[in-house]
TrEMBL record:
Presence of the UniProt keyword Transmembrane in the record: yes
GO biological process, any: nitrate assimilation
GO molecular function terms attached to this record: nitrate transmembrane transporter activity
Coiled-coil portions: none
PROSITE patterns given in the database record: MFS (PS50850)
Name of the molecule in the record: NNP family nitrate/nitrite transporter-like MFS transporter
Annotated transmembrane regions: 20-40, 52-73, 85-108, 120-139, 151-179, 185-203, 252-272, 284-306, 318-335, 341-364, 376-398, 410-428
Amino acid sequence: MNREELLQKYNLKGNPNKGLIMATFGFFIGFAAVSLYGPVATNFNKIMHMPGLMLGFLVAAPNLTGSLLRIPFGAWVDKAGGKKPFLTLFLLSIIGMAGLTTILYLYYPDNLTLKMYPLIFLFGLLSGSGIATFSVGVPQTSYWFPQNKQGFALGAYGGLGNTAPGIFGILLPFALVGLGLPGSYATWFVFLVVGTAIYAAFAQDAYYFQLLKKGVNQDEAKKVARELGQELFPSGTVVQALKISAKVPGTWGLVALYFTSFGGFLALTTWFPTYWIQYYGIGVRQAGLLMALGFSILASFIRVYGGHISDKFGGEKTAIASFMIVLVGSVILILSNSFGISLLGEIVMGVGMGVANAAVFKLVPKYVPNAPGGASGWVGGLGAFGGFVVPPILGVFVDSFGKTGYSKGFMVYTVLAVFSIVISMVLMNKYGKNAKIA
């Protein structure tokens, strides 16, 4: 029975390219929440008068749920496919955006005080749930594609989806002029609802999960899906997926690398607008453009090519080279008092982080082929936790050193880059060669 006959017999929908497109679209919709507070942090701060530490926690709030929820939701894909976890995370985000928009319409600007910080922080947490779609889309994409195309597919997924914070970082400050802060968030809320409806209408899980939902037993579902080109299959329940991946030593090395590359990316996407505004006195809209074009969007597009580089040279070698680039960028930013040189440092870090993000997730299905969803949950969740941890630390540097703390804070990235280079070398020497049989 040929491919078309199998698809018709079991009434299966979608194909790898459509699966990639919808997973990327869904990730784009949810991931925009990274820029929820960062580009407009100064607008909140002028009214609420927050110290550096509280400001750091606020801009990082979406990244807390956006990172920790990746663990169970990424593993859930191995049981239910990606569509249901995606829609659940979208629903949580919609609740958060509705609450935040309501607060702003009722209290902004005259009655918005520091006493309302916990509520604004809470709605930021809920809105950030969409960020966790990343670890859902990774296994969803992995199940659609064969092993030899994983690097390109995941690089395209992560790279194009990653453009959302940069694009929203550009749009949000401009929207403030015409719509005001409440109107800007109301528009974002509508965008989220419409995007969720589009994903619900057109997204499809990989063939294996479609067959299971139609009542086909697991053995037959695997047989049919294999004939249709699917190579990766889940090994058990959500808990089993997490346990299996947790027992692979390389999983924890990848967590450490992703803490620097993607957690660091999230942190700087929220922090760079504040850095440019406070350290160089640049306007809000210009700061948003610098963050987006010089870092966020740049890193996202380079991530697409980073997948190709990882396919060609191997994920471990690519990771080592990329973290060396991050190291150079962090040193430039620490030492620079010049706008042009600091911009160069931002660009260098964007290049390094973009390639590193692709390299790390090239290694996920390689190291843990039996439970890529579980591994994606650990790596994506705990790794992305850096997006919540790092901004408050950067805020402490500002509280401790004043204005110069904005540049000295990049010492954090120097340390993380060196640590990640060492970890990458350990993975290459001890685990890389045996990863497929782990």
